[in-house]
Amino acid sequence: MARCRPTSDPNWGGTFGDGWHFGADFLWSDVRNQVFFTDLRVAPTALRTPDGRARYASRTTFADTNSDLYLTNTTRGRSYIGVARVSKDFDFGLNLGVSYTYQDIKDQAPATSSTASSNYGNGAFLDANGAAYGISNDQVKHNIKYNVSFNHAFFGDYKTNFTLFGETRIGRPYSYTMRDLSSNRSPVFGTIGSASRYLLYVPTSTTDALVSYDSVATRDTFEALINSTDLKKYRWQDHAAQRLQLEVVHAFRPSSVAGNPDLRRRQPPSSCSRISRTSPTS
């Protein structure tokens, strides 16, 4: 992991005055040993789905819905995070600040659940026996934070501070998936766990030879869904890359602090550093 943090506190005088604070951060990190869950009870067969995905079959000779989950590691994943910020302090106690954060984060196994089975079964899968590599569940691609604060010593030397925080950010990423209607081992993919984790194949058109429909009404309804969402962008793309964004979110939160004799902010010094971190392996 590497991090760089330049800062600047210029005094321009004249029209712009002093009290300005500028800063920026850049963080780069690379996955070394992220956890990854897979089922050893199934093995890939020579069969493929129409869009080329592997189909699995149980290694055992008896029918069951059990699994032998294996915790291993993956090295696929990285993050680029950039931040730019500016604030202005006024002599009469007013402070204005705004920052912008950009994130580009990819991983393979989010591992956000508390048990092995749910970590294996939850997520978006291209290969039915392991989570797909792609945009992280936790990525917030664009995030703007802003604040307005005012502090004044209403009672002797004890300052009271009023602050309004706000943010405008893009929504969380999400994917469309297909659901296998079987409640047992999937007859299509041969795996167990969540039956709705398989990434959706987006037809190239209504005449895509890889897709057959039970009726014209089903086809038209599906096409209407695709054309009314960002799914239409993925008609000719690898469906492993399918990742859409929720709508923009706005949030505000007021706060106040009383009785603090010194609320002056301290800016961190400029610095660049590289941090090495070893993750535990299975």
SSE order, one letter for each helix or strand: EEEEEEEEEHEEEEEEHEEE
**Residue fraction in strands:** 35-45%
Which structural class matches the secondary elements?
Answer: mainly beta
Q: What value does the Rg take, in angstroms?
A: 26 Å
- Please tally the helical runs, counting DSSP H or I stretches of 4 or more residues: 2
Distance between the termini: 21 Å
Point out poorly predicted stretches: 260-282
Mean pLDDT: 82
Shape category = elongated
Helix content, binned percent? under 10%
Number of strand segments: 18
What is the makeup of the main sheet? 10 strands, antiparallel
Structure in words:
The protein has 282 residues and is mainly beta. Helices cover 7% and strands 43% of the residues. The chain has two helices and 18 strands. Strands 1, 2, 3, 8, 9, 10, 11, 12, 17 and 18 form a ten-stranded antiparallel β-sheet that branches. A hairpin with a 5-residue loop joins strand 5 and strand 6 (54-58). The longest helix is centred in the last third of the chain and has 13 residues, at 216-228. The radius of gyration is 26 Å and the shape is elongated. The protein starts with a strand and ends in an 8-residue tail after the last strand.
